[in-house]
Write a sequence for this structure.
């Protein structure tokens, strides 16, 4: 069904469903992909494209759907100066272009292959009162677009612009969030230089293991933040215990073990970080219930916390400390296997070993 023959009710239904799906998109790229996919699938456009206008004056592809995109290698790598083409005119002027005979439009950039579309509909995507980019729709036939198609495209570009703006605001919020994490991590680093490098490397490994376990979206973000901050409670541990160049006494060990609860209490007071607090609190629990501070076992332990605990232990085993040399990679893997089902959850161990087999180990 082409847009010109689609019932008005069908158009409104597509716009409504697309608005709902775009409201759930987590990134600018996912917004663009969902928009072009829905438009192509619903109306069988020859091509549906979202282009972004970058500061250097180049229109760059963000997402595309339709036969030309499927046939052309690296279609998304195509670039267009804003001074050229129908889309360039729309991006410069901020006004839509309804072209029902591309051969008659002086700005149309033909391919010279005889496969050019006959009709083109291009509209600006406005984000926060700025021309962010262009939505471009094409059909093979001439005269394929009318005023109702233009109205539908106006609605769609409004939805795309609003969704992109929301993603940008979320990105700014996440930047502030990461800045907060950086400040907290810096404070921990002042107490113990090992903690900062250790936390970054544990976080990198924990995210890779989490992805293998099917953790995604918000939960994967929380896993990353929890791994970065799992030792933040060491801020509350006396420096002489943190930096002691040898084994701790039982009293010192008991004091050191308080750092997970201290860290969790700190994070609970920060709204953005409160959901991460349970991962930090349980980052030293054991699968068999022999860990601290709560003696949780099995499924009582948050999955993310067990990922952090396992990656933390592996990194500690393979790192030099002032009181011992690092364990070899082979010995560390053997230690993971030997403690699978007791200290560590077997599924997490399997995912970590698979990740180590496929990548250069962190050491």
């Amino acid at each position: 069904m082409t847009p010109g023959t689609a019932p008005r009710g069908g158009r409104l239904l597509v716009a409504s469903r697309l608005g709902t799906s775009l409201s759930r998109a987590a990134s600018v790229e996912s917004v663009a992909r969902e928009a072009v996919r829905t438009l192509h699938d619903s109306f069988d456009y020859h091509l549906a494209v979202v282009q972004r206008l970058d500061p250097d004056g180049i229109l760059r592809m963000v997402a595309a759907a339709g036969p030309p995109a499927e046939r052309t290698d690296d279609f998304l790598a195509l670039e267009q100066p804003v001074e050229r083409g129908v889309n360039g005119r729309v991006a410069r002027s901020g006004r839509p272009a309804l072209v029902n005979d591309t051969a008659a439009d002086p700005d149309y950039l033909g391919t010279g292959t005889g496969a050019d579309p006959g009709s083109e509909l291009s509209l600006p995507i406005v984000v926060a009162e700025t021309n962010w980019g262009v939505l471009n729709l094409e059909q093979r036939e001439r005269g394929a677009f009318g005023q109702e198609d233009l109205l539908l495209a106006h609605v769609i570009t409004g939805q795309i612009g609003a969704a992109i703006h929301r993603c940008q605001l979320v990105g700014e919020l996440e930047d502030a969030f990461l800045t907060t994490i950086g400040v907290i991590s810096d404070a921990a680093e002042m107490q113990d230089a090992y903690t900062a490098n250790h936390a970054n490397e544990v976080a990198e490994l924990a995210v890779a293991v989490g992805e293998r376990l099917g953790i995604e979206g918000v939960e994967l973000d929380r896993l990353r933040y929890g791994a970065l901050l799992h030792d933040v409670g060491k801020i509350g541990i006396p420096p002489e215990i943190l930096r002691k160049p040898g084994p701790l006494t039982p009293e010192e060990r008991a004091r050191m073990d308080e750092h997970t609860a201290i860290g969790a209490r700190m994070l609970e007071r920060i709204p953005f970080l409160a959901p991460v607090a349970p991962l930090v609190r349980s980052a030293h629990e054991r699968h068999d219930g022999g860990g601290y501070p709560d003696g949780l076992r099995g499924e009582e332990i948050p999955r993310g916390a067990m990922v952090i605990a396992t990656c933390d232990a592996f990194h500690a085993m393979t790192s030099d400390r002032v009181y011992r040399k690092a364990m070899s990679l082979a010995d560390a893997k053997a230690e993971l296997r030997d403690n699978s089902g007791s200290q560590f959850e077997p599924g997490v161990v399997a995912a970590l070993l698979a990740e180590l087999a496929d990548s250069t180990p962190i050491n």
